[in-house]
Amino acid sequence: MTTRIISSAFLMMLISVPAFTQDVNSQLIEAGKKGETRNIEGLLAAGAEVDAKDEKGVTALMHASAEGHTQSVEALLDAGADVDAHANDGLTALMVVARGNTEIVRALLDAGADVNAKTDTGVTPLMVAVAMGNPEIVRALLDAGAEVDAKADSGVTALKLTERSGYTELNELLKSAGAIATEPRRPQDTLLANESSAIDTVGEIVVAQFNYSATDGEGNYAKNFLELIEAGLIASDLATGMQNGYQFVTSVDGETFTVHADPILPGETGTRHFFADKSGVIRWSIEGPATIFSPGFGESEPGPE
Question: Confidence band (pLDDT; 50, 70, 90) for 61?
């Protein structure tokens, strides 16, 4: 009888091991997101896998980097975290943090992060840093050997991003690093495909904002794409805000939200600019960023008065 009890208990322990591992791994990812460094160290000591991923392929290191938790990033790197782990869409920790945290960028580069890694759409950390207008991070990436003329699938380069955004300082910085200015024109069918994709994406963001508000509890809208991604309402490849030649931005404006989609290079990656809010109407403009006063589909572009 005693032997049977012991055997049963041992069997239950074996069965519970995978469940325990999964539990500590999930806790580690959540601790990375919240920047709970002591908890991270305890979970790793308890057997959590430092490179465990969530359903989107995101690791604790990526979450900690995205949220700006420097100490947690350092703890995970010290524990041997894979600095170049890719999420399902190709994002790495360096790509995410290139949006604006110089300290973590340097920590990842010091740990050997691939400065020329690309997302599934060909976006590099340098493009992200340039799009956000951050000279310090751009310099750090260039010093680490970033490929200055790398092209995304849409044909966009870091230099083209500076021309579109009017970043004179960054433009000169990239040229001094050897960037070559080219002016290829995109075929008309590519322009139309990019615009069609942008319209679809704006619509998806609008739906995601409605769903976020419905489940928020207080009816709030998401302040940025990261909140929508964490809620599982949009694909994580929008973390950079760039997709198929367009730059997307969503924000909260009073009691509504806004969505803007602008061609990264007007005339080359797209012709029309798009705008939407909680009305659900997608509006467009050719001459510049669309607004609430721009025509919606089915309406004519207002002419000069």
Answer: very high
Residues 18, 303: Cα–Cα separation, whole Å: 66
Q: Are strands 246-253 and 256-263 parallel, antiparallel or unpaired?
A: antiparallel
Distance of CA 140 to the CA centre of its chain: 20
Q: Is the dihedral of CA 203, 208, 210, 211 positive or negative?
A: positive
Which one of 1.10.3210.10, 3.30.70.260, 1.25.40.20, 3.20.20.70 gives the CATH number of domain 16-176?
Answer: 1.25.40.20
Residue 92's nearest CA partner among 132, 69, 65 is 65
What lies within 8 Å, CB to CB, of 34 at 6+ separation is 67, 69
Residue with tokens 């990842």: 108
Q: Between 305 and 76, where is the model more confident?
A: 76
Distance in angstroms (rounded) separating the CA atoms of residues 60 and 244: 28
Q: At what angle do helices 102-110 and 70-78 cross, to 10 degrees?
A: 10
| Chain centroid offset of residue 220 CA | 21
Longest dimension (CA), the chain: 95
Please state the domain extents for the chain.
16-176, 188-285
Q: Please count the other Cβ atoms lying within 10 Å of the Cβ belonging to residue 262.
A: 23
pLDDT (0 to 100) of residue 94: 94
**Tokens describing residue 71:** 């100490």
Q: Residue 260: name the closest of 233, 236, 242 by CA.
A: 242
3-state secondary structure of 263: strand
- Find which of 81-85, 157-161, 171-175 is predicted with most confidence, using mean pLDDT: 81-85
At 178, list the tokens. Answer: 């050897």
Q: Label residue 100 exposed, middle or buried (CB < 10 Å: 0-12, 13-18, 19+).
A: middle
Strands of 246-253's sheet, edge to edge? Answer: 242-243, 246-253, 256-263, 273-277, 283-285
